[in-house]
Amino acid sequence: MAFRSHRLLGLIALAGVATAGFAEQASAYLFWSRPNFAGAPVRGDEPGIALPMPGATPKEVQAGLLWNLRAGLNVAALQCQFAPALMTVRNYNNLLSQHARELNDAYGAITGYFKRTTPKGWQVALDQYTTKTYNSFSTLHAQRGFCEVAGELGRDGLSRPKGKFHETAITRMREFRNSLVPRRDLFFVDRELAARTNLLPLDPTCWDKKNRLVKRCRPAA
């Protein structure tokens, strides 16, 4: 009888994880409990953020960062149409309109960079830069995370006044890049870890504020 009571409490705890996770991630569409893709703000010349632009001025670096964000959201508009609720197509089109001047200035700065650094073959260099930038956002196995974050970044960009779209790029580009790495839904990760013990730990200190198992309570792999 005691065993059944503990199992029942374990199932109740599991249900609590699902409910709390859903409430916590109410804005998430493709996950029960969204993985944490967050990252620190960037300048644009850090490894893994954008293609290298040797000798670029700070203005050109920021232009490249903004152009990377635009390219990533463009890819999302094409790849994420399986999830219409994310509005990646509408957000992208609205961003192009709302931030047209800032985006045009960024493209002009990038073009100027290649004219300055590769005067004889600047057009080819620019085309290669653009193509490689687009390709760097192509993903298959991490599509859910990429699309989820792209939807959020689109809304973030639309919340910015004209001339401030680069602030979304600075504060969230690392998150965008992190979303390209395949990550499992945290709800199922925690459920599998708890299932290995045949009973969810009932100690309240074993669960964080998002109702996820803390590291010290997780069973050995």
Report strand %.
under 5%
Oligomer: single chain
Tell me how many strands there are.
Answer: 0
Number of helices: 8
Q: Helix/strand/pairing class, anyone? A: mainly alpha
- Principal-axis shape equals elongated
Measured as a percent range, the helix fraction is: 55-70%
What is the gyration radius calculated from CA atoms? 22 Å
- Helix and strand element order: HHHHHHHH
Distance between the termini: 30 Å
Note poorly predicted spans.
Answer: 1-27, 186-198
Describe this structure in words.
The protein is mainly alpha-helical. The chain has two domains: 2-26 and 185-217, no CATH class; 58-178, no CATH class. 58% of the residues lie in helices and 0% in strands. The protein has eight helices and no strands. It has helices at residues 2-24, 58-79, 88-98, 100-117, 122-135, 143-159, 165-178, 186-195. Helix 2 (58-79) runs antiparallel to helix 3 (88-98) and helix 3 packs parallel to helix 6 (143-159). Residues 1-27 and 186-198 have low confidence and may be disordered.
